[in-house]
């Protein structure tokens, strides 16, 4: 089976630029009418990681959402907007990111992910608690932001669907699977398979590189991507961003599990010429771990030396406590006016850095990791 990923360009989020760019992007895929039928309730799932302004490139830009809402309405669909942010309530995150204003101005429905449904897993994990609106909508349109990710290297189409897991349950999954990148990637794919998105549209106009998904640097790319298969969309997004396959944990896991869309040879691109869409390679997150593949007894003994770990910056940290409150294993405390980390309990998921509103948590590398990096 072959898969198609459309590539388009939009240099700005101005509606006069973005609206026709989205129409052109979707045209080779059959237009929005191929994915939305009259009367259907259509859940739009943006990236609403945390309460940040649009120019920081942490969340899906609100103008992308506005234009997709308009397209859904043109097709006769009823648009809903939902997510479960990593920290903070959905209204607070939606307000700060500009998404709430769009929802109110367009008359779309904000669908908080606060009620869950227990769904039996189809793989390694036996069950998941998934947001009811996510499962019950007639159609699902995935609206991820193209960003680097300190744990998964890249977050885009598949990773964005982790937002279907509600609130504090995300911390539980980090505890279950977050200490092992391969296991965490498999968990993300099993969530993806519970409810395949009907369409994915990637906001790559202002992307993020470096220490994403919350503390990286905005990177203007002027790109839009769309496709019916989210794994295939991720494969193309990573190639355009110059991210090597060996660092793409989700895509490697998809290949290992035989999930549709992983094979680049089976993916066709349309719209903008692929070579014209390429950008200079993204600056990637620091190498945080070289212990995968080691026997467990060696991992336990050498973990401190073979991994990076988060640390506080006392000159910049205002001790807001968000990192402490959201740390999955509870490895952070505030004591004597400083952040204190229990590195024996820390699972190196970097959720603390991901959700720090000031982006001031730093990274300290283990001694052996420093040496190894000199030869990488």
Compact overview of the structure:
The protein is of the alpha/beta class and 376 residues long.
Major β-sheet profile: 10 strands, mixed
Q: So how many helices? A: 15
The low-confidence parts are 290-295
Distance between the termini: 37 Å
Helix content: 25-40%
State the fourth-level CATH superfamily of the largest domain: LarA, N-terminal domain
CATH architecture of the largest domain: 3-Layer(aba) Sandwich
Indicate the mean pLDDT. 91
Q: Please indicate the percent range of residues in DSSP E strands (runs of 2 or more).
A: 15-25%
Overall structural domain count: 2
**DSSP, total strands:** 16
Kindly name the structural category: alpha/beta
Helix-strand layout with pairing:
Layout: E1 3-9, H1 15-26, E2 41-46, H2 62-74, E3 78-81, H3 90-97, H4 99-106, E4 109-110, E5 116-120, E6 127-131, H5 132-136, E7 139-143, E8 145-149, E9 153-155, H6 157-160, H7 169-177, H8 181-194, E10 199-209, E11 217-227, H9 230-240, H10 249-257, E12 267-271, H11 274-277, H12 296-306, E13 308-311, H13 322-326, E14 332-335, E15 338-341, H14 351-355, E16 362-365, H15 367-373
Parallel strand pairs: 1-12, 2-3, 2-7, 3-4, 7-10, 8-10
Antiparallel strand pairs: 1-11, 5-6, 8-9, 10-11, 13-16, 14-15
Keywords: 4Fe-4S, Iron, Iron-sulfur, Metal-binding
Domain 4Fe-4S ferredoxin-type: 308-337, 338-366
InterPro entries: 4Fe4S_Fe-S-bd, 4Fe4S_Fe_S_CS, DUF362, PSI_iron-sulfur_center
Word description of this protein:
The protein is an alpha/beta fold and 376 residues long. The protein has helices spanning 15-26, 62-74, 90-97, 99-106, 132-136, 157-160, 169-177, 181-194, 230-240, 249-257, 274-277, 296-306, 322-326, 351-355, 367-373, and strands spanning 3-9, 41-46, 78-81, 109-110, 116-120, 127-131, 139-143, 145-149, 153-155, 199-209, 217-227, 267-271, 308-311, 332-335, 338-341, 362-365. The longest helix has 14 residues, at 181-194. The radius of gyration is 20 Å and the shape is globular. The two termini are 37 Å apart.
């Amino acid at each position: 089976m072959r898969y198609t990923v459309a590539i388009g360009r939009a240099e700005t989020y101005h509606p006069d630029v973005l609206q026709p760019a989205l129409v052109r992007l979707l045209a080779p895929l059959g237009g929005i009418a191929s994915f939305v039928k009259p009367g259907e309730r259509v859940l739009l799932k943006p990236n609403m990681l945390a309460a940040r302004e649009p120019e920081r490139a942490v969340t899906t830009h609100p103008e992308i959402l506005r234009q997709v809402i308009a397209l859904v309405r043109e097709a006769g669909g009823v648009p809903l907007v939902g997510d479960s942010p990593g920290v903070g309530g959905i209204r607070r995150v939606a307000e700060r990111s500009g998404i709430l204003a769009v929802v109110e101005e367009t008359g779309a429905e904000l669908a908080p992910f606060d009620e869950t449904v227990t769904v039996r897993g189809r793989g390694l994990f036996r069950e998941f608690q998934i947001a009811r609106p996510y499962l019950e909508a007639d159609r699902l349109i995935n609206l991820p932001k193209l960003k680097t990710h300190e744990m998964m290297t890249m977050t885009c189409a598949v990773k964005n669907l982790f937002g279907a897991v509600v609130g504090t349950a995300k911390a539980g999954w980090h505890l279950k699977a977050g200490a092992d990148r391969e296991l965490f990637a498999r968990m993300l794919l099993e969530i993806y398979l519970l409810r395949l998105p009907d369409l994915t549209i990637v906001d790559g106009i202002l992307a993020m590189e470096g220490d994403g998904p919350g503390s990286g640097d905005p990177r203007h790319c002027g790109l839009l991507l769309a496709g019916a298969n989210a794994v295939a969309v991720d494969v193309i997004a990573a190639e355009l961003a110059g991210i090597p396959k060996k660092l793409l944990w989700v895509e490697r896991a998809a290949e290992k599990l035989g999930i549709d869309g992983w094979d680049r040879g089976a993916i066709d691109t349309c719209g903008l010429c692929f070579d014209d869409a390429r950008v200079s390679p993204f600056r990637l997150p620091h190498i945080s771990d070289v212990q995968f593949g080691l026997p467990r007894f060696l991992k336990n003994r050498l973990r401190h030396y073979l991994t990076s770990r988060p640390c506080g910056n006392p000159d910049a940290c205002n001790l807001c406590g968000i990192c402490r409150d959201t740390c999955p294993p509870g490895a952070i405390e505030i004591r004597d006016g400083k952040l204190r980390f229990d590195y024996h309990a820390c699972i190196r998921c970097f959720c603390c850095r991901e959700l720090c509103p000031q982006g001031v948590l730093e990274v300290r590398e283990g001694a052996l990791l420093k040496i190894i990096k000199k030869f990488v």
